Amino acid sequence: MSTPNFKTSDNADNEAVDVLLVTVTKIEARAVLALTESQYGCVPTQFYNQKTYYDLGKIGGARVAMVRSEMGAGGTAGSQATITAAIRDLSPSSIIMVGIAFGVHQEKQEIGEVLVSQHIQEYDLQKIETQNQDVHIIPRGERIQSATKLLDRFRDGELYWRDSEVTFGLLLSGSKLIDNLNFRDKLLDIWPEAIGGEMEGFGVYTAASISKTDWIIVKGICDWADGNKKDDKTQRQQLAAKNAAAFAMFVISRGGLARSSPLPELNYSELDQVKVQSAQPEIIDKPISKKSVIIAYADEDTLQALNLSEEIEKSLNKSSVDIEFFELNSNFQLKNYISLNNHTDKWFLFLMSKNSINSYWFKLELRSETLLDLEQRKYHIVIAQLDNTSFPDTVESILQERRKISLQDNNDKIIDLLQSNTNTRADKIEFFVNRGHELDQLELAITRSRIIYLTGVPGIGKASLLRAAVRSRFHRDLIQINLSPGHDLELLAREAIAETGNVQPSELFSDNELMKISVNKVLERVAQGGVLFINNAQHAMTTEGSLRKYLQGFINALVAQEIAFPIIISSTRRTEISPEEAKYIDIIRIDRLSDEFMNLIVRHWITSSNQMLSSYSDSDLKTLVEQLEGFPLAARMIIGYLMFENPKRLAQVRFISRFQRKVAEYIVSNILSQLNDLDQTILQALAIFSSGMSTRQLLTIKSIAGKGTENVQDSIEKLMSLMLINQSVDVIELQPLLISYFSDKALHQNTYETLALELADFSWKEVKRISEDMAVIPKKDRNAGNKDYLRLSKKLLKIAEPAHRLLLTTRQNTKANQIPFRLRGHLREMVLVMYQQAKDYKACAEFAQEWLKIDPTDSEILLYQARAFRQLRDYHKATEILDKLERQPSKLLKSKVFRERGMISDAQGNMEEAIHFFRNGRIKRWDGRLYYPQINANLAVLLMAEADQRTGNSKDRSKRYAEAVELLSEAREFIPLFEENYLDLYINAQLRSGDISEQRALDIINEALALQADNSKLYFRAAEILADLQRLDEALVYAEEARIRGDKRSILTMVNIFLTKSQFQDALDLLATLTPESPREQMISDVLRARALKHNPKYARELLQPYEDLRNSFVIYARIQIELNAAENEQGTARQECIAVAEQILRENQQFYDRKLFKPLVEQMQRLQNLGSPT
């Protein structure tokens, strides 16, 4: 018998299986094995345990294995049993069922099409009833979603899959082999959205959910379940199995499924999962330990440069420093000075004067890339002022962060600086956030392309992404060439020779000879593990977006010689490629980062550059980070300001506008000369409007329309190529960080007033037109289900704020003041519709935000926005809004704010704080009535929950139940719909306090249900009471009725009933359908799951470990029960150890539980102590 080389519970040193492929038929298994060898170069090997497993080797960094199951989910060898055994033996992190399925839409689908389960639906569980002598089938099975992570990987893989069609959706799963058209159509009548069906999926889910293993079903269509299954059966099944296996393995090969991946999924709460590392220079030859100083000066300042060099040599010892002079009006390029410099301590001293800022190099060559390139090569940059000349506006944003020293009196300051080795700028920290999508694109491109373009605006992180990916994912070294406007073939070739660590050829070599040498050196270096990276390729592009001849020829020569790894090129311009080039070129656009990742970057740079700043909390930085608009460059620039100002002051509008303009100057500085008058007018119009416009809307502006439609379209294409604007469908938007910059440009060029007047007139007409269209819709139809109303509301949402702002800007106050009244019945109403009817809390928050731009004092909408953020679990934003509302004088509003604060605290698991807020919110009117009686219900719920955790018969517990009854009695007088919303709670409180009996409670509930047949809360309460009375079958009926009507709590009631009836698998299956929405729900779910795992005490203990310090009778009961269940299956010393642990838990917590409740456990413990062998 061979031994598996996989990590198992008994062999933790061996490598774990990451992905388990599960097949059923011989055709399915052969498809997987054949692809493993032919496509991925792995020779499968067999090994044995209870099942036969196949080791498929490593694919995409993941260890992959395969196992075969019998047909169907049940039985001793079906998918559930097979996968349960495989999880025990191999502990995979992902399970993918591959094989064949039936399709349901012959006119839309085709044989071989791959179906991927977004959800699965078990169709066997049905209730059959007769209505009017007709048989009706009512489905009872659950719809279960596949693992989110695997769905994400497969959806991403679909983008790059070039073979068979792939469809995501609902897969039916059941025990029947269906080949009957009538039966299939009956299933489609019940589940019309289904895309196909199969037999093993529910078994996969059942087995995987117990161990919390990710799973998904991937199957190819081989027939239509229409009675013609035998037609071309073998060929169809082979095609279906092959396509499903090929797509599944293609997704695996793209990476992201290895549990020990070098690029783990980013968890916002885990700071160490963001890869942050200091930039490392590319060392070519042996480093030189001397200092290297380049003095850059204007010809008129030669004497000062010479004097400075003499003092440096004298003070630092001439033998320990190498000084070179760079004259700013010469025709030499700075690149020639720095490309071969191997010194470890390098300085660039720029002698700034009225002469130097008028020099050829300063005017034409100084760009942000120039200084960034110097810093990437570890140069310290110092601006040495010879006179009082200030930075010109065009370069202020580029030079402002560098060290500035005055040399007007003497050179001592610069000598001290050189001797101290002080950094002239905080060390450049290279960030690398787990950009999963871009990385996956990059990894796929490397497998199929010879050239890869990374495109994105300056400062977006293109080079940083590549540097980190090359080191951590591809384990190669970077050969980086940074292009500039002055590059030609000779400089490119010489730099390539230097970067590959070779000696420079003689000056006598021609350009073509140099290119041949450089191509050979690059090919050799790449073959040894290098990656050629050509940065800033926009400097070598024509106006049409193609590469200039010198660079294109260099790349063509490398491709022709079959370079061992793709050439990677970064550019801030969109690249134009021909259809023929598209066969071997990939283009990947690097987009802005989300605020949560930006927060992590800022946090890391703060810690790296100044430990004193690390005391700032995430909430201190949050508003500031939101203004950085996802630009890593902006995050780096803001650190300098944080040295002197706190985040709250920096987040003020005045500073943010000024800061965003400086970032914009950096982005635009290198392309401003390429923008003509029409380009700038379009950019200014988009900046003034700020909410996105269509081409049609832009053409309503006379100064734009006058240039002609064709020229306008060409200009838009050009601006998109330069990545200054984005287009989504028909809406054109300016990059957010550029809005302040181009608004200022319009002011300085005296075009702002004209553009604003035209835009105000256009937007006012749009508001009128849309609001009139909406007014036609009857009030009863103004809801989230009306597509026309929703569409018009969103259009109004987009136009209303800029219309209001522009009308005020152009002093058309009368029209501006009409806008809130035009919108009140529409835009404002949508806030309530989205919260109350659609339950779309994200949309609610967005509609509220737009309305508040027009009426920022609307307290009701502010409160709804806070509620929406609470539902979205963004408690920070919700609390910020409540802080503003609490300052308002209205006592009713204060009461509602306290209630909202209490609900946030409750959601965060802080019961004591929640009770405090609810009590403070019980504010009374002059007549003694509560302003907001609903708060009594919230307080009553928590008082009863708190009482449940206390000693069974204590006065304190009874006191809390009595107070809950009193609170609800008071609320009953004043809440209009109390019976519909709170009767179940009131009955529960009366039961707990002993005011009514269980039977009386059931009678009240049944009487109420006669009038409120759909009240899920009453069904739930009846189920709870019946369960307490041990009338379990009746309880299940009521619980199921509550669940059908949407009460999630009933799931926990049903789980408890299944546990009481020892139906542990049923309990686990039901728990798998529950998504906890608060810490308390998570705790209850984990405790119930632990109790259900009767035969797996180890995993059960792990589930309860986080709750061991809770003095909660629910947790204590479960901990004792798990130990006693373990003792039932042990004997001798092991049994006594389990009993001893149970006794200790009981002893330590005896004051926290109800003795009557725990009596069965005590009796079980005594019985086990008297036994000599397991029962």
Structure description:
- This protein has 1175 residues and is α/β, with parallel strands linked by helices.
- Among the domains are: 235 residues, Nucleoside phosphorylase domain (Rossmann fold), CATH 3.40.50; 133 residues, 3-Layer(aba) Sandwich (Rossmann fold); 158 residues, 3-Layer(aba) Sandwich (Rossmann fold), CATH 3.40.50; 74 residues; 75 residues, Arc Repressor Mutant, subunit A; 83 residues, no CATH class.
- It is built from 49 helices and 26 strands.
- The strands form 6 sheets. It has a 5-stranded mixed beta barrel with strand order 5-11-10-6-12, surrounded by 4 helices. Strands 15-14-16-17-18 form a 5-stranded parallel beta sheet, with helices on both faces.
- Helix 33 packs parallel to helix 35 and helix 35 packs antiparallel against helix 36.
- The chain is globular, with a radius of gyration of 35 Å.
